[in-house]
Design goal:
about 100 residues; alpha+beta; two-stranded parallel ribbon; two-stranded antiparallel ribbon
């Protein structure tokens, strides 16, 4: 459900919304399969290290799925939100511009 909602947000906000996925699959083949299955049209990073991926520690991910919302200044303004709150936060950030 989250991937579908993110695709809709990406279509709605176009270039004003940037998405990035961090895939915790053990290998690139599984990651590519998931990207195709979920129709993710944004960049996806797969270090093939599962929970040992450096970005897990860097971003402080503890559960999957996880999310981080950053504003135009790259300041983290939200973390691990549900889709309703993600949509509201993105709308609020866009309205502030």
């Amino acid at each position: 459900n989250m991937q579908t909602s993110l695709r809709k947000l990406q279509k709605r906000y176009g270039d004003t919304l940037s998405l990035l996925s961090v895939c915790l699959d053990a290998n690139d083949t599984d990651c590519r399969r998931a990207v195709r299955r979920d129709s993710m049209l944004w960049p996806t990073i797969c270090a093939e290290q599962m929970w040992q991926t450096p970005l897990v520690r860097e971003f402080g991910f503890a559960v999957v799925p996880a999310n981080i919302i950053a504003d135009g200044n790259r300041k983290i303004v939200g973390r691990n939100l549900n889709m309703k709150d993600i949509e509201k936060m993105i709308k609020d950030l866009k309205d502030k511009k």
